[in-house]
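Re: that chain you flagged

S.,

Sorry for the slow reply, it's been a week of failed gels. I finally had a moment to sit down with the sequence you sent. For the record, here it is as I used it:
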Amino acid sequence: MAKRLHLNPRSRDVYARARVVASTSRKLGVVARGIRGLPVERALHALLFCKKTAALDVKKVLQSAIANAENNYGLDIDLLRVREAYVGKAFTMRRFLPRAKGRGTPLRKEYSHLTVVVCEVEN
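Prediction finished late last night. Pasting the structure tokens below so you have them in one place:
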């Protein structure tokens, strides 16, 4: 999972992206919507206790964004908030599942791109 980072100089936003996550965009989107707008500490706790498997991928990207903000830009972790968390579709691998009497059923393995944006908010 390659992660990229970007800082918008005007608004102090820090991005972390995970490209080609082996999950559908619908499954990741449900989890990403749940952390949008939360302080990073509450978002990490929410992802820790979320029962969905996609929460692990979202948690990794959120931790990467927090680490980028702290190490690369010197932002305070206690003031960080999840500004955006969104998912985009990547590619779909098409396979066939063998069935009875020599038939094959199409099988689609979908991949997604995940982006989490954190920003420093003054209290």
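What I noticed first: The chain has one domain: 3-8+24-120.

Talk soon,
D.
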